[in-house]
Each structure stands twice: as structure tokens, then as C-alpha cells.
Amino acid sequence: VEIRDRALRQRFEAVNAHIQPNSAAILISYLFYRGSAHAARVYWHLRNALFAERTRALLLAVENLPAERNPYRMRIIPPTGSMYPLLQIETLPAGLSLDWLASSLARRGIGLLPLATFARTEKGFETGRTTFRLTLGGVDGAEALLTKTRRLLIDLNRLIAEEAARYNRRTPRFHPA
Q1: Which residues sit opposite 133 in a β-bridge?
Q2: Which end of the chain is more exposed for a tag (fewer CB within 10 A), N or C?
Q3: CA 138, CA 132: separation in Å to the nearest integer?
Q4: pLDDT tens for the 177 residues of the chain, in order
């Protein structure tokens, strides 16, 4: 990088010095570069098979959840061209924020990212307002993801119901002047 402003270059170098190279990514890139095209296709086939199996587990978790346990009609939207399926809440009560839900889940050890974080357009923000981004990466297999997703759906439906009840019960108190 060429940065002519000395102070800006020094700040950039100071920040950049803290970034460690991703050795695994470098190794995989090297192996792809040095390996055959067949080896690369085998890798991508295995990766896609694992992601497809994990996606089926997420979809099955929603499918197996009885309607009375899913009153906010949550659904999984499979990934298209990435490893990020989406968890959409079709009937999110008015006034509820996915940021608040994400914070509440984080306190329980569940990390979800509201899709609005990645929105760049009005349409993207509208979709992201009711949607979380999930990932298919990690070490959990399909069976573990099925169990965890079911638990997530149940907990998230309960959290939404609790917050919606609190939000709707609040009435303003007026004090006579």
C-alpha cells in the first residue's frame, strides 16, 4: 500500500501490524495452486455436501416444530451461493428490534447477527429488519445443528412473546397538574 501522508501511513502500519496472517487460508490456497483441478473439485464437492447436510438439518428443525411452538412463523431461508442461511421471523410484533433480541440471546450464549447489519439499500434493510444471518461453518454436524436450531427457535419464540407482552402492557401514567 502506498500512503504518501506520513502520519496516516504510520497509523495504517500500526494497525496492520496487529493483523496476523491466516495460516490455514494460506495453506489451502497453496494446495489449490499446486494441486490438480480434480483435487479442487473434490474439495468443493465435499464442502457443498457438508453445507447441504447442515442446511437440511436447519430446515428439518423448523419443519418438525409444531405451529403452537412457532407462533411468530419463523422460517429458514437456505443459502444461495454462500454459507449463510437466513432465519426470518415472518410476524415480528411491531416495535420489537432484532438488535434487542440478539443481545438477549448473546447473554444466553447464542450469537446471531441481524441481517440489517449488512443492508445497503432500503429493500435490504426492510428484509434485514426481520431476519438473522446464520452460518453453516463451524464444527457441529447436522445432528447437533438440528438439536441446537430447535432449541433456538423455541427460545426465540419465547423471548419475542415475553418482550411483546411487556411492550403492550405498558400504559402511560398521567399526573394531574
Answers
A1: 86, 113
A2: C
A3: 17
A4: 788 999 999 999 999 898 888 888 888 888 878 888 888 888 889 989 999 999 999 999 999 999 999 999 999 999 987 788 999 999 988 888 888 888 888 887 788 888 888 878 888 787 888 999 988 878 889 999 999 999 999 999 999 998 888 765 556 677 787
